[in-house]
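WARN retry 2 of 3 for item q-0093 after timeout on previous attempt; input resubmitted unchanged.
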Amino acid sequence: MKDFIRPMLYIISLIACCIEIDISVPCFPNLIEYFKTTESLAQHTISINFLGFFIGSLIVGPLSDAYGRRPIMILGNAVLMIGALCCFWASTIFSLLEARFFQGIGASVSAVVVFAMIADTYSGKKSAQIIGIMNAAFTCFMAISPALGCYLNQVFGWRGNYAVVGIISIFSWIAIVLALPETLKIKKRVTVKQIKYDCFILLKSNYFLCTSSAPSLLYAAYLSFITSAPFLYRQTLGLSLYDYAMHQVIVVSSFSIVSMLSGAILKYMTSLQCAVMGISLSIIGVISFLLGSLVFPGAFITTISVSVFSVGFALFYPVIFTASLSIFPSIKGSATSLIMSKRAIIIALVVFTTGHFYDGKLSTVAQIMFCVVSIAGLLMGLSLFKNKR
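OK item q-0093 returned
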């Protein structure tokens, strides 16, 4: 029973975090028109969100080691809820950016502490299967988020997109307060000196750095496309809002369906096989996108190529993420914090770079994705080499 209730609570706490990007991206053209701003600033609502996520991630892991997982979850999700509501009430693009920054800080808490709680309770393949179950649930929400975002934007305007995230955040906070159990059995005294020492231990491990960075790079490549998609499909390729939503749903669903099946896949494949197949498909997908953007630029080849990339990403992420958490089991909180903060800054930099160099061409986004995925592939190779040694 606990194996059902706990993942459900974890999913509830992560729903607002996992849908806020996909549900807000479709309103970017409306943000530009409403605030009389630029495409770059609209995309920066994502990068600034991940900057807040980065800052929050650095501290919430050690704090949860010292004060317990539950109280930090309650406090952090309150910040997420307030930030989400401030997005709805934003009167300028800069006040929206400020709200997104604090929303990112709040979102970092669930993203870090939930995985520390999983590491407290489960290990090995069981941990990967639990992460797969969670992906199966909240990626279903991700799959419908683009279409929902388009609908909300069309009916209620851009504020409707942020209003839904705010409402979900309120219900999530209430569920955490009422039902989330504490999983940390032994709290430890945490000082600045101890945090520095833990970070030193983690940062000097090349194996940890390679293993934890590769999934983050794939996530960053994925989001660089998702945040550019409304402009690519609607402006560059000339699709209607409905057609854009359908293409976005296909891309997100390809990730969602494979994530949903990750627990079953791990029964027939080893973690290493999943990782190798995942990174291979990611590379194949992004190369196809790059070649297609140069030779046959179109919506169909773009969606199919990025969907292949997304399938590889979904295979790769849970097993490598789980492996990175198991390298230093005695400092799970600090390890999770460092992984998530590093992931956030990588995503912020890649999305910022995509927004900065965006020129309306498919090939520009494809080239950025190709560079990022190539680095991930190199780190994966180094990780496997160091593991064998």
